[in-house]
Amino acid sequence: IKIAATWEGVKAAAELKTVLLSNIVLVGEAPAPPGGEAPRAAAVAERLADTGLRGVAVDEHGNVSATLPGTAGDGRRTLLAVHLDTATPSAGCDIEVQEHCLIGPFVGDNTVAVGALVTLPLLFEKAGMRPESDLLLLAAARTQGRGDLEGLRAFLAEAGAFQAGLSIESFALG
Predict the structure, then answer these.
(1) Has residue 5 got a pLDDT over 90?
(2) Among 111, 101, 97, 103, which residue's Cα sits nearest to residue 31?
(3) Whether the predicted model's global pTM rises above the 0.85 cut
């Protein structure tokens, strides 16, 4: 992926802080145990559709995908993936937003990454940036525990080749 960092990009990121936090809370409060990700998948698909991305879809495995078109138009694709599910069942989680932190179950695994994924198209737009290759955004279902990466495996088996792939994982610090 060729993307030049610009001052406009840095300013855009700062301006989108509230949107990012809202997206983190939105997806984090939707339950998503392995095999039960439908509420979170629906929230992610809706947010991606709201950004105007093409091809927003939830497949039969519960994976959510969308494409951010690149500038090259040559069919090259880069996969940017997050896992959608949480490690254990829950009935939904309240997330508390404090000045310098977010507090709640699964914020560090993987709610922040999912929130960032759905905010990314807005960041590109606001900063006036586009990737060179198409960027396929994927929120993969059934990855944790007994899910054993089922959603990601099924998606990759059906999706064809990518020039590169990157998995985004949140991490709890402290």
Answers:
(1) no
(2) 111
(3) yes
